[in-house]
Fold this protein.
Amino acid sequence: MTVLDKELNLTVSSSPHIRFLEDTKSIMLDVIIALLPALAVATYMFGIRALILTAVTCAACVFFEWGYRKLLKKTNDIGDLSAVVTGILLACCLPVSTPLWIAVTGAFFSIIIVKQLFGGIGKNFMNPALAGRAFLFSWPVVMSTWVSPLSYDSFFTLNMADAVTTATPMGSLHVASLPENLTLMQSFFGQVGGSMGEISAFALIVGGLYLLARRVITPIIPLSFLLSVAVVTYVFPRGNDNLQWMLWNLLSGGLMLGAIFMATDYSTSPVTIKGQIIFGVGCGLLTVFIRYFGAYPESVSYSILIMNACVWLIDKVSFPKRFGEKSGGIKKAKEADAK
Amino acid sequence: MSGSFFGGIHPDDGKKMSEHSEIENLPAPEQVVIPMSLHVGTPCEPLVKPGDTVFLGQKIGEAKGAISAPIHSSVSGVVAAVEPRLHPNGKQVMSVVILNDGKDATEPNSDAQTDKAARDPKALADIIREAGIVGMGGAAFPTHFKISSGIGKADTLIINGAECEPFITADHRIMLESPDEVLSGIRYLTAAMELNKAILAIEANKKNAIALLKKKIGQEKDIEIRVLKTRYPQGAEKQLIQAVTGRLVPPGGLPADIGCAVFNVYTAWSVHRAVEQGIPAIDRIVTVSGPAIADPKNLRVRVGTPVSDLIEAAGGFNGTPLKVLMGGPMMGVALFDISVPVIKATNAILAMGDESEKSVKDPKCIRCGRCVNVCPMHLLPVYMYISEQNDDMQMLDKLNLTDCMECGSCAYVCPGRLHLVSSFRTAKVKLNKFKADRTKQS
Ligand code: SF4
Ligand code: SF4
């Protein structure tokens, strides 16, 4: 026994004994990276204030998560970066002119009430960022004050005097008319008023493609969501040109951010493919329904939140078929062989 | 390319470490410890007592019951003890300890079945049973029982050369180094099953073996090579059948229920040797590899050799291993004592460093659904886990927990690093108890 005489301290634990590289932290980091294009556009359109707002919501989210778990003597989770993701997403759905203290209040609601009170990561049933935003509609004026893009005097100061209720594409669509003085291209690239992270469909799609390439998300929820919105708006264009109406609907408001980043949130979406299709289509139909008949122009957040609340039910009805059950296995296979 | 199955994973296969090393003979040790349980099913009854002289290949354990296979001595020498010893499964199991006299003396009057014409199914099944051949891919299910329970029902014979577990190259090497013997064994198995054709299924990553075997088969129509996608768990029986035939083994059913029989390539090789040379299952090919092994190798090892001998033959450890595994990294067993013996189904000894495990202090499910997407049995591991944590037996039953084959795909991909498989093992025990209690009450 030459090589084996030293004491071995072998670990005995259950198989499997190897694991894939990807972990929660790397996934969250990918989501953060995927949100960078949208943040860059927001900063370009609205100035440095967009970054300040994001930094504040992130810091607040991380702080609340840390503080809550510390206070209750639970394991420290901030290393998984999920609070940072919530912070960025929350900032993305706020108008750039939102007072910082209101943003911090939103972060509190997102992290403490929606996420931690239900047990923390993976256990919350509503999307924290969206629920935080919904909560902030307690300040309706703040939440619908839109700064026009590229209107800043200096990159470093936000001209709050300009922060008036600028018309947004969503505002026009809500009253069944196509936006005036705006082109689809402007909307696609984000030169419109709106929540700071929602304005550029282009930036969000780039981020989405990154997430797909990294396999952080699958295309099922975004596609079924977007497609159902596309189909319904195309078929019922509310008196407008079908194609124009459909494209404006796809590119406006929170749809891209919602379909790519919010509806795909793991904790609050179904786990089976069948369930994800039901979920995506449900989000899409509700979005159009609320846009057409609701009191507020904002519809994507509410649609997703409503579908979030149905996930347990969807998961229940979308049980996968048991392996080998009633397959008629041999008969069918034999017939196939015979051919 | 063949069909496919749902789910599965593509782990880094690590086979490069050993796939080019030729099989080497590991000299028989001074002492072998042969457990009387080398297969799935009823353990054997020892036929020898301390002080007895045994020959190489002499039967020392008699099969009991239908699902059992006899056990033979892997050396010649003197029986030193018949007593419980530590088995790789972590339990004390009745074992025969034999001191090797180094002569490898065989029984003088052994009438080796060298009648090559013996293709009578009955005779073949008898030889296979008497040779103690069991499923050599890891499951160790007695081969003769598979044959007898499959005859007449099975219309498709599949030989499993998938070898989908990372690191393991034992089957790959036997196909490369003894292609004629493997093919001959397959033909004997075909005859034993009263069929006239077999499908040899190999994962696409073993190109050289595929090419060689195709050349050897030539124009013959009785063996068809089917190239499978390289994906874990391609070699799992149900997934293999699904990929090759499109048929699904029903819940709780057997391959024979849907007309299939599956044997491993090394099993086929063993059948060839048993029929033509009368040598029973006394040794096997073991891949000794893993990141913490200095010089990875494929070794021919006598059953009953201590695992530590194999590690030594492969240059010992490279650094300090975290775990030593018997079997592959996905389904193998972690050993706490490396003096345990090699058994018939041992296809690999792997030493893993701590970087493979990636364990975290506080595993948390983030509901990402990856486990659902990879489960080849169409299960919902995330919900099975939650139900186990909540002791929700009804739900576990509804989630078809018993279908879980513990392949580990779900745990492999889990970004929350949950110990899913270990949770399911616990859950199965709980569920069994729950069901038993329920029947008692009613
Ligand atoms: S893979 Fe892990 S983290 Fe993801 S849903 Fe399954 S158990 Fe949860
Ligand atoms: S271990 Fe069980 S639950 Fe997990 S993937 Fe394999 S069969 Fe499915």
